[in-house]
């Protein structure tokens, strides 16, 4: 058992030291630092879950650490995250809670996840107006819902 734990820790440290990419599909934060292969679905899930559980994304975004730098993306980090996690985000918004929704809420700088989840859940049909709605449109709709409902505290 000790060998397995040591192997996991060593693997995590190698991932951290090998991480050269800044923004990952699973969002920025501890999860994107530990699980650097954003193209692997398993790493996206593990990364997003770690980000949601660790709750360090707000600090990372404010301080520019934990892979939270935008690297010239012009503030489009939320749209990139939405595009990469569209199905999971859609499911989370329909439920009003979930790791993907929590990660995105933190990317918007929101701390009251319950209020954000509730507001977005009530406006699901507006946010996901069609099956092939673009990530940038989803981002704008979410911003409008958050501002209109003053859900982001």
Automatic annotation (TrEMBL):
Pfam families: DUF3015
Signal peptide from the UniProt entry: 1-20
Sorted UniProt keywords: Signal
Designated name of the protein: Exported protein
Protein's organism: Halobacteriovorax marinus (strain ATCC BAA-682 / DSM 15412 / SJ) (Bacteriovorax marinus)
């Amino acid at each position: 058992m000790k060998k397995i734990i040591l192997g996991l820790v060593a693997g995590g440290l190698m991932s951290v030291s090998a991480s050269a990419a800044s923004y990952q599909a699973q969002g920025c934060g501890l999860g994107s630092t530990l699980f650097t292969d954003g193209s692997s679905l398993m790493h996206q899930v593990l990364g997003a879950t770690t980000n949601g559980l660790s709750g360090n994304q707000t600090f990372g975004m404010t301080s520019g650490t934990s892979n939270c730098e935008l690297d010239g993306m012009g503030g489009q980090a939320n749209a990139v995250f939405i595009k990469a996690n569209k199905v999971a985000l859609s499911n989370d918004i329909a439920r009003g809670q979930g790791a993907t929704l929590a990660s995105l809420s933190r990317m918007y700088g929101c701390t009251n996840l319950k209020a954000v989840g509730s507001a977005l859940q009530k406006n699901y049909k507006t946010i996901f107006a069609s099956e092939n709605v673009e990530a940038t449109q989803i981002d704008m709709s979410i911003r409008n819902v958050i501002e209109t409902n003053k859900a982001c505290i």
